[in-house]
């Protein structure tokens, strides 16, 4: 969620530690809920890029995506210079080349067949006052999806007041404030708008119909994740059949930095509680040594693995294992 200067510093130099120590593991395991309904993914900034990567890698399993303040799949090309350049300012993004790369990886079996994207519901969002990521970056994502997904499945929103942050109806800092926790009270229910695009009419939100649980992320492999992740489980999802939404936080927005503010106040939980949806909140670990990731960003330029776009990439594989666990029965 940092501005361009902070992003650059984060990737080329070692910074002071950002955030407090991780919470101790309390032996919680991610529950096997039999949540074998639809799987959708969303995220903001680096999390938006990660949501797109997950969607494309596992498009044979994903129903929809919502990409907030981020660009097309594969934008960085594995280059940090491209990541903090074109993928932020929108200059020189070659959408056709990225389409070709996806087709090549799909043909090689590294990601799901691109044909599986045809029915995906895609929501693309850029706040009108966002000066961190240029609007053309999100438009490039729309052009990329346009080659694989039916036009009626894609919506692009760019006229809502706000800055580079996660927008809510009434929680967070001021609508025009670019500061932690990067959750902005803008009178706009971003989570609700996303869910409505994916699923159509929703049941009324329920403020108290479920609970947040911490779980051990280290059980899912070495993927530069924090010890603990979080999951919101509606009371009605103690029986099989619920949908799953994965929310990828932005840089400087993990629980290491802002606690559980995004987990508790993204706006998803209140809708999920009454619409049979489990919400998964995985968390990245910041690091000042290899892999260099001092701002706790998701890996969308290859800091964990050269094959960071493939289904076997550490972070993609870990999140997929979490989704599989939630979908399974004990």
Structure summarized in a few sentences:
This protein has 330 residues and is α/β, with parallel strands linked by helices.
Return the domain count: 1
Task: Assign a percent range to the helix content.
Answer: 25-40%
- What string gives the helices and strands in order? HEHEHHHEHEEEEHEEEHHHEH
| Rg calc | 18 Å
3D structure, described in words:
With 330 residues, the protein is α/β, with parallel strands linked by helices. The N terminus is likely disordered. Helix 5 packs across helix 6. It is built from eleven helices and eleven strands. Helix 6 links the parallel strand 3 and strand 4. It has one domain.
Notable characteristics:
single chain, 330 residues, alpha/beta, eight-stranded mixed beta sheet, three-stranded parallel beta sheet, 11 helices, globular, disordered N terminus
Layout of SSEs?
Elements (H helix, E strand, L loop, with lengths): L3 H9 L26 E6 L1 H12 L4 E7 L11 H4 L2 H4 L5 H13 L13 E5 L9 H12 L7 E4 L8 E3 L4 E2 L8 E3 L4 H10 L10 E7 L11 E7 L8 E6 L6 H4 L2 H5 L2 H5 L4 E5 L32 H14 L3
């Amino acid at each position: 969620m940092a501005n361009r200067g902070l992003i650059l510093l984060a990737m080329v130099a070692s910074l002071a530690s950002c955030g407090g120590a991780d919470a101790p593991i309390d032996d919680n395991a991610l529950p096997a809920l039999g949540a074998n309904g639809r799987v959708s993914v969303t995220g903001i900034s680096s999390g938006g890029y990660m949501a797109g990567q997950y969607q494309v890698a596992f498009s044979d399993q994903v129903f929809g995506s919502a990409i907030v303040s981020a660009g097309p799949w594969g934008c960085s090309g594995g280059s940090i210079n491209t990541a903090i350049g074109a993928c932020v300012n929108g200059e020189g993004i070659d959408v056709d080349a990225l389409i070709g790369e996806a087709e090549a990886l799909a043909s090689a079996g590294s990601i799901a067949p691109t044909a599986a994207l045809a029915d995906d519901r895609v929501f693309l969002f850029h706040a009108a006052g966002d000066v961190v990521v240029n609007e053309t970056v999100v438009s490039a994502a729309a052009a990329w999806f346009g080659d694989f997904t039916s036009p009626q499945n894609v919506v692009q929103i760019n006229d809502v007041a706000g800055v580079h942050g996660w927008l809510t109806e009434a929680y967070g800092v001021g609508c025009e404030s670019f500061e932690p926790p990067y959750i902005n009270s803008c009178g706009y229910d971003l989570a609700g708008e996303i869910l409505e695009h994916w699923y159509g009419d929703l049941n009324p939100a329920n403020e108290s119909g479920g609970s947040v649980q911490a779980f051990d992320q280290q059980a899912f492999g070495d993927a530069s994740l924090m010890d603990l992740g979080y999951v919101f489980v509606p009371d009605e999802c103690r029986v099989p059949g619920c949908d799953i939404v994965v929310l990828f936080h932005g840089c400087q927005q993990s629980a290491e930095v802002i606690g559980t503010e995004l987990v508790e106040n993204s706006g998803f939980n209140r809708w999920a509680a009454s619409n049979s949806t489990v919400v998964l909140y995985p968390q990245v670990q910041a690091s000042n040594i290899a892999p260099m990731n001092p701002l706790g960003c998701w890996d969308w330029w290859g800091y964990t693995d050269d094959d960071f776009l493939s289904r076997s990439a550490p972070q993609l594989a870990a999140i997929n294992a979490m989704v599989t666990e939630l979908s399974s029965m004990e």
